[in-house]
Amino acid sequence: MIEYIPFIAVVTMIFIGLYAVLFRRNLIKIVIGISIIESGVNLFLITLGYREGGVAPIFTSLPPGTTYPAGMVLPVPQALTLTSIVIGVAVLALMLSLVMHIYRKYGTLDVRKIRRLKE
Amino acid sequence: MSGMSKIVKTSVNILFPLTMIFGLYVIAHGHLTPGGGFQGGAIVASGCAMIVVAYGSKWVFKQIKEKRLSSFESIGGVGFITVALLGLVFSSVFFGNFLAGSNLLFGTTPATGSTGADFNTGGVLPLMNFAVGVKVIAGLFVIVLVMAYASSVKEWDT
Amino acid sequence: MNIIDVLIEQSPALIIAIPLLGAFLMPLVSRINSTVRNIFGLLVLCLTGFFVGILASDVLANGPRLYIFGAKDLAVPMVRILFEVDSMSIFMALITMVLAFITLIYSWSFMKDHDGLDKYYTLVLLLITSTLGMELTGDIFNFFVFLEISCIASCALIAFWISEGEALEAAFKYIVVSAIGALFVLFAIGLLYAQYNALNIATLANVLKYTFLDKIILVLLLVVLGMKAGLVPMHMWLPDSYGRAPPSVTLIIMGATLASFYGVLRVIFTLYGNVLSTTMRFSIPLNVLVGWILITLAIISIIVGVAMALVQSDFMRLIGFSAVAEVGYMFLAIGAGIAALGTPYATTALQGGILHLLNDALDIGLLFLVAGAVYYITKKRSLDDISGLARNMKYTTVFFVIGLLAVVGMPPLNGFASKFLIYESVYQLNPILSIVAILCSILMLAVFVKVFYAVFMGPELPAFKNVTEAPRSMLLAMGVVAALMIFIGLFPNLVIDALVKPAADALLNHAQYIGTVVGGV
C-alpha cells in the first residue's frame, strides 16, 4: 500500500489542478492550477526514478561499500524532471506577464468579463 | 515598488553576498554535486530578486539597464551553442565532449570509487554550466525586474 | 571522406544548431542596425535551408539517417538523444523552410514600423528551430521539449501586438491549452518510460505490447497532438490565435501546427505501427477503430470549419476557420488511410493527405498573406469596413483569386491535385464521406466568393481612394507562394513522385524506421 501513495498523490494533484483550470474564474487561479498539474507530473517522474537503496550516479565520493554501477540509479527521470521544471518556469513567467497585461487592459481578472473575442 | 525599511535593507546587504557565493558554488560544482547552471542561476537570481524587493525596482532599474541583462542572456546562449559546436569541430559530433581526458582545462579523468571530488574534471560540462548559469541569472533577473517595475508604475507606455 | 559527406553527416545537428545560434545572436546583431539584422536573418535561414536541402537529397536517395548527440556510436543503455530523419521528416522540414523564408521576406515590410523587432526575429528563429526539431527528432522526450519551445515562442508571437486586448486573450487561451496539453504529453512519456525503460521512438515501437497503459498513452497523445493540430472538439484556440497574431507570423505558427499533425502521424504509424493491424479491440481491428474515430472528427472539423467561416465578419478569423476545415481534410485522408490499411487506396489516401499538408500550408498561407496586406494598407479587420480594393491593389487581388481557387480545389491549382486524391480514395472507403467533403468544398467557395466581393469588388469607399499597392517585399512573398502553388497545380506528379510517395512509404514502412536504430546497436 505504502508504495502507491506517491501515485495517488500524483493523480490527486492533477485533478486538483484540472479543477482549478476548468472551474475557477480568476486568471491567477488558472495559472496556479497549471502549476499544480505540472508539480503532479514532476512528482510522477521522480517517483518512477526511485530505487530503494540506490545512490546518486556520481562516481566520486561514493558511500563506502556501494557497488558501481549496479548500485546507482539511472538519472534519466531526474533529467526529465529538471527539463520540465525549466520549461515550467518559462511558461509560468509568460503566463503571468500575459495576466499582468490583461489586467492592465481590462481592469479585471474575471474570465467572464474578458470575452472580447467572439465565439 | 519602493524600498523597504532600513532593517530589511541591512539584512539584505548581509545576505546578498552569501546567496551569491552559494549560487556561484552550485554553478561551478555542477559536474560534481547535484546542481548546475539552472539551479545555481536560479539561486543567484533569487538573491537579485531579494535586492529588488528590499530596494525597490526603480532604484535597481537605475543601477542596471534591462538591455544589458538581455545581452548577457544572449551571450550565455551563444556560449552554450558555441561549446556544442566546438564539440562538432574537435570530436566530429555535436555536443561532443572534446575536453574530457585531454588533460587540458577540466580534462583530468576522474578516479572512481570512494575518492574525493576533483574539480578539474568533466570536460565541457563545467563550461556549459557556466554558459547556462549566465543565461539563467540574466534571464530570471530580467523577468523579476521587469515584472516588479511594470506592476509599480501607474501608466505604461505601450 | 570528402567535405559534402561530412556536411551531410553533420546536417541533422546543424539544422537545429544554426537557427538556435541565430536566435541567440539576434539581439546582439540588432544593435547595429535594421538592414544588418534583416540580412543576418536571411543568412541564417539560407544556411539552414542549404543543410535541409543536402540532407533531403541524401535521405531520399539512401534511406533514413541517424544522428547521435554527444557520441560516435550508440551505447547499450540507450540514453543518448537521437535524431532520426526519414523521408517524412525531411518532407516536413522542407515545408517548414519554405514557410520560414516567406515569413522572413514578408516581415521586412510588414513589421517595419514596430519596435521590439530584435525580440520578434529571435522568437521567429526560435519557433523555426523548435518546429524543425519536432520534425527531425527520434526521441519522444526531445519531441516534448521542442513542443514546449514552440508553444512558448508561438504564444509570445501571438501576443506581439500587445496593445490589443484581443491578442492577449488569444495568447492566454493558447498558452493555457497548450501548457496543459504538453503536460499530458509528458505524463504519457512518463508512462512509456515506466513500462519500457526507453525514450527512443524506434526502441519503444519495437517493444510496445499494447497493454492497458499503452491505450491510455495512445489516447493522451492523440488528443493532445490532435488539439495542437486543430482538430475539432479542441479547435477553439486556432481561429483566435491565427486571427490575432501578426499575419506575418501566422505562416510559421501554422508550420508548428503542422508539426503537431506530423506528431500524430508518427505516433500512429511508427510508435503503434507494430500493434496497429494485429490487435483486436471490441472485435474489430485497432486500425479500423482509430481510423474511424479520426474520420468522424475530421468530418465534424470540415463541417464546423466551413459553417463557422460562413458567419464570420473578421477577415483573418474567417481564414482561421477555413484552416480548421483544411485540417479536417488532412485528417480525413489520414483516417481513411489508417482504416483501410493495406489496401491500395489506403496508400492513395495517405499520399493525398500528405500532399494536402503541403497544399494547406501554401493555400491558407497565401490567404493570410493577402489578409495581412489588406490590413497593412487599410488598418481594418472587419469585412464590413473594407470595399473596392481591386482598383488600387491589382496584384494583391490576383493573389487572392489564386488562393481562393486553390483552397476550394479548382484545377489547375494545387488544391485540386490533393483534394482529388482524397475524394477518390475516400469514396472507395465510404461514398458518403466523399460527398460531404465535396459539398463542404463548394460551401467554402461560397465563403471566399463572399469575401472577394466584400473586400475587392464593390463600391470604392472614400477612405480608400488613395490607397497604394502593398510594399514590394510583401508582393514578392505572395508571388513566391503563388508561383509554387501554380507549379504544383500544373505538375502534381513531379511533387508526388519526388517527395510525397517516399514520405508515405516511410510512414507505412515502420520496420525500416525501427531497424535503423535497433539494428544498429
Please characterize this protein's 3D structure.
The complex is a heterotrimer of chains A (119), B (158) and C (521). Chain A is mainly α. Chain A contains 3 helices and no strands. In chain A, helix 1 (5-23) runs antiparallel to helix 2 (27-49) and helix 2 (27-49) runs antiparallel to helix 3 (76-106). Chain A is elongated. Chain A starts with a helix and ends in a 13-residue tail after the last helix. The two termini of chain B are 20 Å apart. Chain B has one domain. Helices cover 65% and strands 0% of the residues of chain B. The model of chain B has no long low-confidence stretch (mean pLDDT 85). Chain B has 158 residues and is an all-alpha fold. Chain B has helices at residues 6-28, 37-55, 57-63, 66-91, 125-152. Chain C is mostly helical and 521 residues long. Chain C has a domain at 279-490. In chain C, 77% of the residues lie in helices and 2% in strands. Chain C has helices spanning 3-29, 34-62, 87-110, 117-136, 140-158, 165-196, 201-207, 212-229, 237-244, 247-271, 273-276, 286-311, 315-339, 344-378, 394-407, 414-429, 431-455, 472-490, 492-508, 510-518; strands at residues 65-68, 82-85, 280-281, 284-285. In chain C, the strands form 2 sheets. In chain C, strands 1-2 form a two-stranded antiparallel ribbon. In chain C, helix 6 crosses helix 9. The model of chain C has no long low-confidence stretch (mean pLDDT 89). Chains in contact: A-B, A-C, B-C.
Percentage beta strand of chain A? under 5%
Major sheet details of chain A: none
Number of beta-strand segments of chain A = 0
Percent helix range of chain A: 55-70%
Structural class of chain A: mainly alpha
SSE layout:
The complex is a heterotrimer of chains A (about 120), B (about 160) and C (about 525).
Chain A: H1 5-23, H2 27-49, H3 76-106
Chain B: H1 6-28, H2 37-55, H3 57-63, H4 66-91, H5 125-152
Helix pairs in contact in B: 1-2, 2-3, 2-5, 3-5, 4-5
Chain C: H1 3-29, H2 34-62, E1 65-68, E2 82-85, H3 87-110, H4 117-136, H5 140-158, H6 165-196, H7 201-207, H8 212-229, H9 237-244, H10 247-271, H11 273-276, E3 280-281, E4 284-285, H12 286-311, H13 315-339, H14 344-378, H15 394-407, H16 414-429, H17 431-455, H18 472-490, H19 492-508, H20 510-518
Helix pairs in contact in C: 1-2, 1-4, 2-3, 3-4, 3-10, 3-14, 3-18, 3-19, 4-5, 4-10, 5-6, 5-10, 6-8, 6-9, 7-20, 8-10, 9-10, 9-13, 10-14, 12-13, 12-17, 13-14, 13-16, 14-15, 14-16, 14-18, 14-19, 15-17, 15-18, 16-17, 16-18, 18-19
